[in-house]
Structure formats: structure tokens, C-alpha cells
Amino acid sequence: MTSTRTLHILKLAALVTLCAACSAQAFASCGDTLSALATSAYSHNLSQKVGPQTQAQNGSGSGSSSIVGFWHIRFVVGDNTIQEAFQIWNQGGTEVHNPNVDPRTSNICLGAWKAVGKRSYKLVHRVWSYDGNGVFLGTINLSESVYLGHKGATHTGSFTLDFYDPDGNFQFEVPGNVIAERISAE
User: Fold this and answer.
1) What is the pLDDT of residue 30?
2) pTM above 0.85, yes or no
3) Helix (H, G, I), strand (E, B) or coil at 151
4) Which partner for 30 in 25, 80, 109, 186 could form a disulfide, CB atoms 3.0-4.6 Å apart?
5) DSSP 85-112
6) Residue pair 133/39 in contact by the 8 Å Cβ criterion
């Protein structure tokens, strides 16, 4: 009972710290964006679980059966979009993520991906997290499992954000869904 209570107190303290460090109006960096995203999601999800997203419906577009390309993505927790970004899945298994934050605050993040089945992919994305004053808060591990929709114009799936303090100790996890639409030059 005591260790559960202590864990809840630590989670609440992390949430308060993240709320104080982040603003819904302006984010300091990719890491801060994810911190704010998680703060919002964590407070929204204290009493509910997020279920897996259904597979994408028929889409229009390039007809690609590859995840490689340029995407507009949304991270969703419950009914709330908590972040949007542009994302490039590169041939060779690397990813570039550009969230909609002030570009003066270093808003480019990087990741790696692999195919795990027909039209199914896993992405790992690591972020150094800082507050608006440049204080190191730790790391954030973003993981995505996505399914490429019919004709390759969409992908949907789930994500988790795992937060670690500066010493590498796990703090908490925030789950949600990711929804994406391919951007193509037509």
C-alpha cells in the first residue's frame, strides 16, 4: 500500500513539474512538446485507458504500400488531439519528426523504424527533455506501432511515451493513438 501511494505521489509530482515547465500555447523544444503532450494526456487518462485505434479505411493518394514518405500526424488521447507534426519516414529505417512548435527552440526530433509485418511498422524515437530555462529534465522514449492503410494514404496505430528522470529512472507512461495522412507531390 505504501509503495503504491509513493508511486502515485511521484507521478503527481512529475505531472506538476511538467505542468509548470510547459505551456499549452508555446513549447520550448521537441522534448518539451512531448512533455506538454504527456502532461495533458496523463491528466486526462488518470482514470481511463486508451484502446487501440482501428485500422485505416480506404484512402486516396499515391497507392504506395510503403511507409516511406512525408506525413502529417496527430497524437490523440481520448478525443483530444494533443500534438500535430510533420514526419518523414526515410528509406533505410530512419525518421525525422517536426512538431508544430516554435522553430527557435530546436523542434526537430529523430527516430528509427522497421517493418514488423505486412503493412505494419514499429518506430522508436528518443528525446532529450529540457524545460524552457534549459534545465535537463531527462529523456522521453516515444514508441509507435502503426498500420499502413489501404492505398498507402493513411496510417493509424498506437503510441506510448515513457518518461525517465535525468538519472535514467522510469517515471511514468502515457498511451494514446496516432493518426496520419500522407502528403504527396501531385
Assistant:
1) 61
2) no
3) helix
4) 109
5) EEEEE-TTSEEEEEESS-GGG---EEEE
6) no
